[in-house]
TrEMBL record:
InterPro entries: Brnchd-chn_aa_trnsp_AzlD. Keywords: Membrane, Transmembrane, Transmembrane helix. It comes from the Bacteria. The chain crosses the membrane at residues 6-25, 37-55, 75-101. This is Branched-chain amino acid transport. It comes from Caballeronia hypogeia.
Amino acid sequence: MNYVTLILGMAAVTFGIRAAVFILGDRLPFPPVVRTALSFVPVTVLTAIIVPMTVSPHGNGAEITWRNPQLVAALVAIIVCALTKRPLVTIAISLAVFFVWQFAVLR
């Protein structure tokens, strides 16, 4: 029963925060500093998701070696993105590197 109460409480808080933003959206203007800070949220969230999966793919601590295909593909993606600035090219090349590294180099 405690878990149900906990989950319902978290759902109510989450819903309340999100609903307040939609209901008060135009009536509550954000200062420019807050708008600037909120523009960095997507990059921050993606970084928080991608870095742990890249550095520690098995969850056993950091695997910063050439035998980590996620890390190799991420490094290639950074280089390709910096050179081309084209997301689809970056994704295609880094996926190709990941699969080639995983199936050809590590076997």
